[in-house]
Structures are given as structure tokens and as C-alpha cells.
Design goal:
- This is D-alanyl-D-alanine carboxypeptidase.
- Keywords: Signal.
- The structure is a single chain.
- It is built from 8 helices and 12 strands.
- The strands form 3 sheets. Strands 1, 2, 5, 6, 7 and 8 form a 6-stranded antiparallel beta sheet that branches.
- It is an alpha+beta fold.
- The chain has 2 domains: about 90 residues; about 120 residues, Pathogenesis-related Protein p14a (3-Layer(aba) Sandwich).
Length: about 260
């Protein structure tokens, strides 16, 4: 009888250890040291209880080191706030506010960027009295680069970059090598350039022209890309994207 008990105990311990290892591996797979080091805490405070839902973005630990899961998998969960924090995003050079939320039964919790949270009445957590209209990507590209050939796949690549829901991942891709990886998923090329710009009014061609000029691509310079393929996108002032600022645009230029 003692042997049976001992065997069952060993099996139980083995299963327990296996579960711990499995849970640890799962947590480790969501851990990102680069994401944690990409932000600095400005302040963290308690806040009143409000009810929200979230269908985009992700839920993190308090310093973004661990990603608990994508919000689309918990789209039907009602989240209740109890705290908020401001994080300074070192690479982007601006602050972002995250809310600490819990499910009604307390089984789920984490920090969600407030731009992804919608109040139960359907409104976002921050109302902006701004214009969320942007110029059509194809029209913008053809106007800004009249000597180049518009490529819709490059616009798709720009859209995919802008909708990455992790600011640390976005920042890691802000390089020639990183952007090459983004584009290569859509089209092959021999040579590539990218332009990252900010427009005060993404609904205005004049504003976009000024933004490109500020990045060293005035009208005369843009005409030098005759024969290149070009595509891109610009976000609206009301767009709620975690890694991209409102009014930010991405343009890709390639030679095939």
C-alpha cells in the first residue's frame, strides 16, 4: 500500500512540475526584454472604476515586459479599471497612458493602452476634436512622386507596419534592415529606401509635402526617383495605433 502511495505521489509531483514548466515556458514565450527596456515609467496612480471593452492590441504586465495575450481573444470581456500609468517611449520620444484592468470575476488582469479601450457606450477613452480623414494613399503617392510608379503592394506593406500592435516591435523595425524585412513579405526588390514622416494635417497635400520636405525629400528630390516603384500610407489624427503617432506616414521606394 505504501508503494502505491509513493508511486502516486511521484506521479503527482511529476505532473505538477510538468505544469509549472509548461506555464513558465508559456510566460517566457511572451516575455520581451527589449520591450520592457523601451519604456520608462513616468507615473502610476489609482483611478476610478470604469467599464471598457477592447478588441485590438494586447494586454501586458505593468512595465510591458510580459504580453498576456491579444485583446481580440478576449473581445467579449468587460474590463474594469482601478489604476493607470504613463510610460515614456524612448524610441518614439513621447508618452503613452495605459490602464490597469480586471475582468468582472478577477480571473484576468493586465495593462492595456487606453487607445485600444472603448467605453461600454462605444466611445474611445480619449475624444479628440480633430480630423480623422486622410488623403487617399494612391493619390498622395502619385502627387508626391510624379515620376515614380505606384505599387499597391508597397502600400499594403506600409499599412501592415502601421498596424503592428506592439510599439517595441515597431521601433525595432525602424531601420533599413527592419523595413527591408517588412517589404520583402510583399514584393521582391534590389534596392530600397523608406521615408518616415509626420504631417500636422494628413488630409492636406500641402502639409504632407511640407513633412516630406522636412525629411529631406522636397519636390525636386522626389522627381529623382523616376522609374522607382513607390507606395505608402499616412495615419489620421484620430487613429488609435500603439506604435504609430497620429499623422505619421510611411513611404517605401524600391528598385526591382
Amino acid at each position: 500500500m505504501k508503494k502505491v502511495i509513493q508511486i502516486m505521489t511521484i506521479i503527482g509531483v511529476g505532473i505538477g512540475l510538468s505544469s509549472v514548466v509548461s506555464m513558465t515556458a508559456s510566460a517566457s514565450s511572451q516575455y520581451s526584454a527589449s520591450r520592457a527596456s523601451s519604456v520608462r515609467l513616468v507615473w502610476r496612480k489609482a483611478m476610478k472604476r470604469h467599464a471598457y471593452t477592447a478588441t485590438t492590441g494586447s494586454r501586458f504586465s505593468k512595465h510591458l515586459s510580459i504580453r498576456y495575450g491579444n485583446n481580440k481573444t478576449t473581445a467579449k470581456v468587460t474590463w474594469y479599471t482601478d489604476a493607470h500609468e504613463m510610460l515614456y517611449k524612448k524610441y518614439a520620444g513621447h508618452n503613452a497612458i495605459y490602464y490597469h484592468v480586471k475582468s468582472a470575476d478577477g480571473s484576468l488582469q493586465g495593462w492595456i493602452w487606453r487607445g485600444y479601450l472603448k467605453a461600454r457606450n462605444g466611445k474611445t477613452t480619449k475624444t479628440q476634436v480633430t480630423d480623422d480623414v486622410t488623403v487617399d494613399s494612391k493619390t498622395m503617392i502619385r502627387t508626391m512622386f510624379p515620376k515614380s510608379t505606384y505599387n499597391s503592394k508597397l502600400t499594403d506593406a506600409a499599412n501592415s507596419f502601421e498596424t503592428i500592435d506592439d510599439s517595441a516591435d515597431v521601433n525595432e523595425l525602424r531601420s533599413q534592415e527592419g523595413m527591408s524585412q517588412v517589404i520583402s513579405r510583399y514584393v521582391s526588390f534590389k534596392r530600397m529606401k523608406y521615408i518616415d514622416f509626420y504631417s500636422k494635417n494628413p488630409a492636406s497635400m500641402k502639409s504632407i509635402d511640407q513633412a516630406l520636405t522636412a525629411q529631406g525629400y522636397d519636390a525636386a528630390t522626389r522627381k529623382n526617383f523616376k522609374g522607382w516603384s513607390v507606395g505608402g500610407s499616412v495615419t489620421g489624427l484620430d487613429d488609435a495605433l500603439e506604435g504609430i503617432d497620429p499623422g505619421e506616414g510611411i513611404i517605401y521606394l524600391i528598385q526591382q
